[in-house]
Amino acid sequence: MIKGPIMLLFLNTAQAWICILCSCKPLDSWGWAANCNLMALKEMPLLNSSIRILHLQNNNLTTVPFGALDSLTNLEEINFSNNPWHCDCSILYLKEWLEDFNKSSLEKATCATPASLNKKALSQLKGNELEGCRKPLPINCRDFFWRDFGLTFLVIIVLILAACILQCSKQLVFQAIRKQHSSEIPLLWFHDLENQKTK
């Protein structure tokens, strides 16, 4: 008797946790279908990895934060159409994610701004036509000079230290060999004297 209300409470709690700002219903086998259609969303809602169907069409989404869709590993269906996407460099995350997920979903999502890209499908975008992607970094020659000078100086110091270590090790080896031979020479000389006496 009590199991029914407890299960209902559990499902309602799970639904509230899985679908914040959206309407969710459990699917027959497992997972959830999240319907965020016509919710006037301006930002991506928090999404749970157990969502298998996600409808985000007809909202006011302009961008998707980098990594916001990465946790949706069980997703089978998604719809991002009819959102006023702002197609600058930050839209590349959504474009590349949809390319990996489903190319037809990519065709349905179109740019609203800037005006030069209005109604252009995300699938047709190229990085060099997006604002913010084509800005070259300013070249500061002084920074290059000091960086290269510092690296060259460091390499020279390392080479000098390596040469000093090599020279010292050669001298130590030479001294060790000379010391070893100098201790053997008196013994040989003494041995030669004894041989001469016995003759």
From TrEMBL:
<keyword id="KW-0130">Cell adhesion</keyword>
<feature type="domain" description="LRRCT">
    <location>
        <begin position="83"/>
        <end position="134"/>
    </location>
</feature>
<feature type="transmembrane region" description="Helical">
    <location>
        <begin position="144"/>
        <end position="166"/>
    </location>
</feature>
<keyword id="KW-0472">Membrane</keyword>
<keyword id="KW-0812">Transmembrane</keyword>
<dbReference type="InterPro" id="IPR052313">
    <property type="entry name" value="GPIb-IX-V_Complex"/>
</dbReference>
<dbReference type="InterPro" id="IPR032675">
    <property type="entry name" value="LRR_dom_sf"/>
</dbReference>
<keyword id="KW-0433">Leucine-rich repeat</keyword>
<dbReference type="Pfam" id="PF12799">
    <property type="entry name" value="LRR_4"/>
</dbReference>
<keyword id="KW-1015">Disulfide bond</keyword>
<dbReference type="InterPro" id="IPR025875">
    <property type="entry name" value="Leu-rich_rpt_4"/>
</dbReference>
<protein>
    <submittedName>
        <fullName>Platelet glycoprotein IX-like</fullName>
    </submittedName>
</protein>
<feature type="signal peptide">
    <location>
        <begin position="1"/>
        <end position="16"/>
    </location>
</feature>
<keyword id="KW-0732">Signal</keyword>
<dbReference type="InterPro" id="IPR000483">
    <property type="entry name" value="Cys-rich_flank_reg_C"/>
</dbReference>
<keyword id="KW-0677">Repeat</keyword>
<keyword id="KW-1133">Transmembrane helix</keyword>
